[in-house]
Amino acid sequence: MDRTQAKRSPSPQPGPSLSGWTVLITRPAENAEPVLNAFRQAGVAAVLTPAIEFSSLVDENRERLDSLLRRLRADDGWLVLPSPTAIRALFEVLGSPGQGPDPLGSIRLATIGAGSARALASHGRRPEFESPRPAGAALAQALPAKPGEPVGIVGSAQSRPELRQGLAARGLSVEFVPIYETIPSPSGLAGLHCRLEQLCRARGGSLEKPKAILLVSSPSAVDAIAESTINVKGLLEGVIWVAIGPTTRQRLEWLSLANGAVIESASPETEMLVQAAREAVAAAEARPS
Description:
single chain; six-stranded parallel beta sheet; Rossmann fold; 2 domains
């Protein structure tokens, strides 16, 4: 398996043409529009086939969430908002500042990634701290908090532990409240299968080497695709992959799912995903037939 990593760059350079290729966006529908638009503006056929969807956990964790926010207000603590999805889920429950008093009050906010900072700004707040790199471990190292200070985190039940562990290792008082989880999307996965079969038929009727690029943004999306295709022989044969971040790529490799080319995009920014797709095509086309 060929593997390349797309390094973050402020101005990606044009790469190989994506003409004739179809990009299948497997992230949840709520997060897909900017990526779909970026590929379409680049002249690429892009289709939304979400492998996962979000399910709220706020009702079962509302008491914990309210308790955490009270503690952070009282003790001048930090609240880490690791993703646009976490921000959307939180403000859907609490309401935005423009709809009344600021629901977060004096709590200091920290975000991971440019997308999270933009999502927070759309609700009338700006983070007091932005992670220097779009990774939980980077925020854990750099957050300007002192030992003993309370730090709350809200996010996905499937979130990786590096952020929590890194903050706790610095002597911070860390509490995590899951407010959503990701689950497989039956309709999205059915659409993914249908699109792949259509692309295979267009290449001569056999399940071999469709000109398809699968964009996967999380290990849970990889797991959903793997489970849904386990009994569909050859459906993923020859597909090339763009994985957002190292954990997603590692999950692909661990499951031996990507038999074609796979490239890791170090950044979830849309222009870098288009660049990563170009590099994935170049890697695939360079392989011996």
